[in-house]
Amino acid sequence: MSRLSADDLKMLLEKSYMCRENILKMMRNAEGHIGGAFSSLDMITVLYNKILRHDPKNPKWPQRDRFILSAGHKCLALYAVLADQGYFDEEILWTYGQFMTKVAMHPEEKLLAGIEFPTGSLGHGLPVAHAIALAARLDNMDYRVFAMLGDGECAEGSVWEAAMSAGHYKTDNLVAIIDKNGLQVNGSTYDVMSSAPLQDKFKAFGWSTAVIDGHDFSQVYECLESVPFEKGKPSCIVANTTKCKGLDFAEGKFQYHHWHCEPDKIDEAIDIVNLAKSKELENVGK
What we know:
The protein has helices at residues 6-26, 34-51, 75-85, 125-138, 157-169, 189-193, 198-204, 217-225, 266-282, and strands at 66-69, 145-150, 174-180, 183-184, 187-188, 208-213, 235-240. It is α/β, with parallel strands linked by helices.
């Protein structure tokens, strides 16, 4: 198995924090779901820079791997990464919150290159991802389908119907990534509707599972590089993360699931994020 070099780690860390800064700049115009965007961002950064087979110049390339952000409210992270990858001009990001923007509160594939499916109503992404993965089998194509869910989203029954179906059909080109930050809009997932232990539940439906630190770039990369974990089984990655990672006053607080920030506070938040980046960069390679 290949491993990330110190240069790779530095590149991924810098990109993820650049995207955090861009998300904050977008929020000068409007409120947004910053908590899940920041908790999922490190994994999305690894996916687009190191794992997915994709081509920003040819977004509908038939052989591409597919990524579906089932927890569509985390789309600030996806928008920032897609812009960095060159799917669209960065200037589009700054239209967030404006009338007729292409970077809406939830992603829409008819508006923006790089979006595979419109998500926002929770529980839809995994069933659609499974259908697309089955289509690859029918078409004798070898692309993979990655779906990112939130742990709060796993209270939706459609998630478990899809999990049962994928296990039954042995859809081993399907990967579910669960951004397990432990919080949802109105509190702890354990208090609102616990779905723990997620890895055991997916395993019971015939999936092969792994549990990782979703902010450890090496763990994320090595885990994603290993899919499918077992031939004939879909793969589920339960990634332990921190809500609003990188913004210290908001980390681990459900109140920042969705945040309205006064425009004059954005620069302060950007400074905090950049300080967090500097501290993490100091530890790269140690």
